[in-house]
Structure formats: C-alpha cells, structure tokens
Amino acid sequence: MAFEVDQEQERVRLTSDLQEKALSLPESPEFSRPSSTEHLAHFPQLRALAAAETREVPLPAWSVLCTALGLQRAPADLHRTVNALPQMLSMRTDSAGAEYVRFRVEGVRHLLRAQLPLSLQEHSNITHALLAESLHLGTTGPWRTQGPAAEYAFHALPIHSAAADMLIALSQNPRFLANVDRHALVTGLKLSHPHGIPTGNPASDVHYLEAAGVEPATHEEWICWLHWASMNRGATDFAEELARSAGELPWLTRWSRWRPYGIFGPRLARNRSRERGRCRRQCAGNRRQRDGRRCGPRVQLVCPGKSVAPR
Fold first, then answer.
1. Which domain holds residue 166?
2. ∠ CA(208), CA(214), CA(215), 5° rounding?
3. How many domains does the chain have?
4. Global confidence as pTM
5. Are residues 146 and 181 in the same domain?
6. Where does residue 202 rank: exposed (0-12), middle (13-18), buried (19+ CB within 10 A)?
7. Do 174 and 110 fall within a single domain?
C-alpha cells in the first residue's frame, strides 16, 4: 500500500494591519425595492406573464394570457410594462420581427405566481383563450406554425389544460393532439394523472408510446405513431382526422390488427374479409403489395405477422 502526502506548508501570516483591525464593508445608501405585491398592483400584466409555461413568451401570446385573466392586452400597454421594468423584464425581436418577452431572473416568475396563484377557473379561461387563438386557424391542416400565439400554444397548451383538468377531454380532439408538443403532452398527463391514465383513449396511447420508448425524430413522425395507435384501437375516423390536421406525414398505417394499448382479455371480432378487401384496393397496381410492408409512397402498411417499423 502506497501513500502520497504533501510537504508541510508554511502558514501564511496576516499583515499586522489585518490582525489588529476588523474587516468591515463600506456603507451603501439605503434604498427600498418594491415588493411583488406593489409590482402586481402597478403592472397587473405581470401576473399573466408569470402564468406562462415557457421562459420566453411571444408578445401576442402574452396578450392572449392577459385577455384570459381580464387584463389590458393592447401591445402599447405591454410595451409600457417592459419599458418600466428594465431590470425585471427583457425583450428581443427575431429576424422575422416577432417580439419575445421574458423575466431576467426565473425566480421572479415563481415569486409572482406564489403571490397570486391562479384558480381553476383562471386556468380554464387561459386554456379556452389559447384554443380560440389556435383551433380556428383553418378547418384542416396544421395550425402550430401559424403565428407566435399558435407557436406558444404548441408548447404550452397541454400544461395549461392539465392545470385546468381538461387535458384528457382535449386529447379526444384530433386537431388538438396533432398540433401540440410531445414532451409537453407527456408532462401534462403526468401532472394531471400522476396515479394512472384511463385506458382506451388517445391519452393512453400517448402514455404507452412513451413507456415503450418510442423516440420520434420529428413531430410529424410522432403523429404517425399516434395514427398507428389509433388504427390499433379501430378509431379509423379519428386517425384520418389526425393525419389531416398534422400536415404532410412521412408514413401512415392503413390497417392493423395489433392489440390496442391497455386492452386486456378477448378482443372484439372484426370483419377480416372487409379488412383484406380494403388492403387489396389500396395496394392495387403496387408490385410490392405481397411483402405486407409498403402500399404506395410514404405509406406504411401493417399486416398480421409483419414488422410495423417504418422504412
């Protein structure tokens, strides 16, 4: 056994001045910082900004949050708040001209939240306000990229709806499910249902896909997996609307007889001849129809005994 030790170090002596005189900090002029209550009284829009679920909030999204909480939402009022609190708030403008606001210190946001917590009704108002700003953007196709407010809803709407106890119900809407972030969706489900998620619905598909280790490379691929899980449950209409609402997808499931997630015991009998007829019609004219893998461009065909991994 070997030991390595340092040589004895000579003690550094303090100078005589430091030994005889105690150290003291220079006195600074007294000043009083306004409390969080005073800040909220003078700038009530801070409460809406603190309620945001992202660190950086687009100005239009901040305006929507203000509307939900019954506060002034005009851009001039929001700019006035930012200009009056330069040590608390910062604003940047991206290359497209969109303005984003954030707290300079993240702890301030939590302090303001704790000062005046949101009620369940206020969480519900925020959820409905964001839905009104996003779901009305066209009857089909993706809305998540149509403006800064929709961009914020893509990342934060699942958390707001979880706080409002509305996430499970909203997950029944394919346009909602196709246009919200996967990580926010999983987080919201864990927050709203920490002891388990009801089975036999799209929310349970999200839970089981996450538990199975599905790691899609893009949001579009994630929607493909949700579409596959919906087809497993036999929810073909829901799956079709999900695909239409998501935009262009890399692959799709045409039919499947995989056991749905969370379903135990015997399954309901299906009309196999009808399924086979649908498969033959979709694969007509395709030379690769017999391998049970592909049916036309960008389409994944899931047949019994075949792989479901997309190519």
1. 131-227
2. 140
3. 2
4. 0.74
5. yes
6. buried
7. no
